[in-house]
Amino acid sequence: MHSFLNLITHRNTGKRGFVGKSGLRGWLVAAVWLASATAVAQEGKPAGGSVGADAAKPAVGVAQTPDDVAAAAAAKEAERAEHDAQEARERAALRADLETLRAQLAADRAARAAAETALATHIDALATQATQAPPEVLSARLGLSLTGYVQADWIVHNQLSQDQLNPSGAPLNQDQVMIRRARLRASVDRWWVAGLVELDGNTVTGAQARLIGAEASLKWPPERGNPLPLLMATVGLFKIPFGFEIGQSDRERLFIDRSTAEHGLFPGEYDAGARLMGGWRFTRYALAVMDGEPIGEKAFALHDPNKSKDVVGRVGIETPITPMVWVAGGFSGLGGKGFHPGTPATKSTVQWNDLDGNGVIGPGEIVAIPGAQAVASQNFTRFAYGGDLRIGVNEPALGSTVLYGELYWAKNLDRGVLPADPVKFGRDYRELGLYVGVTQDLGSHALVGIRYDFYNPDADSVNQVMGATTPTALAYQTVAFAGALRASSGRLIAEFDLNRNHNGRDLLGNPTNLAANAFILRGEVSF
User: Fold this and answer.
1) Of 437, 440, 456, which is closest to residue 497 (Cα–Cα)?
2) Which of 40, 60, 96, 472 has the fewest CB atoms within 10 Å of its CB?
3) 392 exposure class (CB count in 10 Å sphere: 0-12, 13-18, 19+)
4) Closest alpha carbon to 316 in 261, 290, 289, 278
5) What are the b/e assignments for 162-190, b being 16+ CB within 10 Å?
6) d(Cα 197, Cα 194) in Å, to the nearest integer?
């Protein structure tokens, strides 16, 4: 190609090294020819990246050996087998995913069906409850509620029962049906104030109706619906804030009545006075100034004969320990003055005593009784201390188990069983009392329990037997077995009381047990 260029150059130049018009035309022709030759050379060479691939392929028209054919077929078969295995694995994975989705769908359908069934059951229960709900009570004040309950007792048998009258003319028969309590309570709860009025009717000693509760309260902080604010001041007629048993509602208690010690020291539970009470977190407190003459007191019920007031109070706790266990308890105290009534002055009198029964005045049958000067009334000191404790375990399957008890220690405080009058008697009375019990839920519709209570109204009593002075046991002991069937608005309670006391006398005049066991049925309805 170089000689060709030289030839063109020599033929078109007049001189060596000079290029004319014809020389320029020759250079252009040479450049075109050179470019064409270069392109033809490049098309004839194979691409660099495909050399190995083309070399691996057999040349067209080249004969293949049987080994090559077998190897190619084996490779193709292996490739097909691998492809089939991969498809099989993918199909298995798809089947597994499909089965999982089917199982999940079935579980979702079952859960949805169970939820729909539970919802339908709940709706039916709410509908039934709504049909049984009490009618609304309209009032002129917001926050008014009206509640009540009736307790009718049938004393099936009491060993004390006799078809006789006592010296005062009251029947001694105890086997009877009576309305033990018929209570109606109206309460109002506003932001700053709260109040209530509670009425009671019963036939224990004949038909009677009475006021047992009346409260007017100021509270702080001003909240509605808070049963225990930080501070609440109350004036009126309310339960004595001593221990647990007094404050427990009669329609929450399983046993027919409270313990004997409570009946002796705090008869009737209600008294008039002024009270401060409240709670903060798990603490509870109550402090009251009261007349000291409860509604069940025998001499001056709800009518204080002296200006001295009783100071009574309790401080305690109520808190859960674990999600299933809770504890509550407290200490109580009372201090005050009791009242001994005096006697008026009397004139001298003459009394005839018909000794021989002949109706004629005889010797020695007329006696002169001298007059007596008046004796002023006197006050005496009295006090009481107490402690109470409750432990509860909430079992989701069975219900609540509650173990509880209370201890009383007092002096000159009895006002219900053996009223204390140390001025008249010449010495103080020491009263000791306690009770301990346990209750157990049996599902949501049954409750059973057992309780033991002890009370001695005069721990220092003595007895004169044939001229000898011996200690006398005046203690009352009761073991009560109770069971209840419960519904949303009522209960049926059966209780057997095993009573032990020392009010009986044997042939020698010694104290002995007076049979007083009793079996009682109670029907209760709440509204």
Assistant:
1) 437
2) 60
3) middle
4) 278
5) eeeeeeeeeeeeeeeeeebbbbbbbbbbe
6) 11
Q: Are 270 and 295 in contact (CB under 8 A)?
A: yes
Query: CA 342 to CA 382: how far, in whole Å?
Result: 18
End-to-end CA distance of the chain: 127
Query: Which tokens hold the place of 101?
Result: 């989705």
Write out the two tokens for 509: 């005049």
> pTM above 0.85?
no
Question: In terms of C-beta density within 10 A (0-12 exposed, 13-18 middle, 19 or more buried), how is residue 334 classed?
Answer: buried
Read off the tokens for 518: 């009793």
Q: In residues, how long is the chain?
A: 527
Percent with pLDDT over 70 in the chain: 82
Q: Given the structure tokens 């020698």, which residue do they identify?
A: 508
Q: How far apart are CA 152 and CA 497, in angstroms?
A: 18
What CA–CA distance (Å, rounded) separates 211 from 183?
Answer: 10
Burial class (CB in 10 A: 0-12, 13-18, 19+), 92: exposed
- What are the two backbone dihedrals, phi and then psi, of residue 425, each rounded to the nearest 5 degrees? -80, -25
Pairing outcome for strands 490-500 and 476-487: antiparallel
Strand ranges (DSSP E) for 29-176?
144-158
User: pLDDT for 279-332, tens place per residue?
Assistant: 999 999 999 999 999 999 988 999 999 999 999 999 999 999 999 999 999 999
Least confident span in 133-137, 189-193, 230-234, 399-403: 133-137
Per DSSP, the three-state class of 439 is strand
Q: How far apart are CA 93 and CA 85, in angstroms?
A: 12
Q: How far apart are CA 495 and CA 385, in angstroms?
A: 30
**pLDDT tens, 229-239?**
999 999 999 99
Residue with tokens 């603490």: 283
- What is the average pLDDT score of the chain? 84
Classify strands 430-441 and 144-158 as parallel, antiparallel or unpaired: unpaired
Output 518 or 23, whichever has higher pLDDT.
Answer: 518
Give the pLDDT mean for 249-260: 95
